């Protein structure tokens, strides 16, 4: 929001996080799986779904509602923990290192799973890959020396591609 004050932001969650929403963010508390989203058709240029899918037992209306509110040519970014997250040791006291450290996780994401959910007719994959934050990775020696284990482990999981992402684009009419 600081980088792009010209954009409008909205947020959705099952829990009421409105007290934590930044000023200017339109917050909606709702059941994402079952609810119709409170937005007009084709009203969003971009939608991000980060670290949500792995918590949902089913996807219900999510893909269709996101498709409905996305403008033609608009993009959907989906990110979450990959099967590689199962290979990491458990670290529940410092950060979610192993996928199962978070008891609310249902299943890790694969490209196939994301494509099956959001690869609707009229959506095409632009790019996909493992999410890597190079600033976190490059800061690992410094965070190790400072014994900042939270940021060190964050760099570690980025180095090995703990998260995957897929960017979809809705076909322009």
Keywords:
173 residues; alpha/beta; four-stranded mixed β-sheet; single chain; two-stranded parallel ribbon; Rossmann fold
Q: Please identify the top-level CATH class of one domain.
A: Alpha Beta
- The CATH superfamily of one domain bears the name Vaccinia Virus protein VP39
What Rg, in angstroms, do the CA atoms define? 17 Å
Number of strands: 6
Main beta-sheet strand count, sense and barrel state: 4 strands, mixed
Give the oligomeric state of the chains in this entry, treating copies of one chain as homo and distinct chains as hetero.
Answer: single chain
Low-confidence stretches: none
**Can you name the CATH architecture of one domain?**
3-Layer(aba) Sandwich
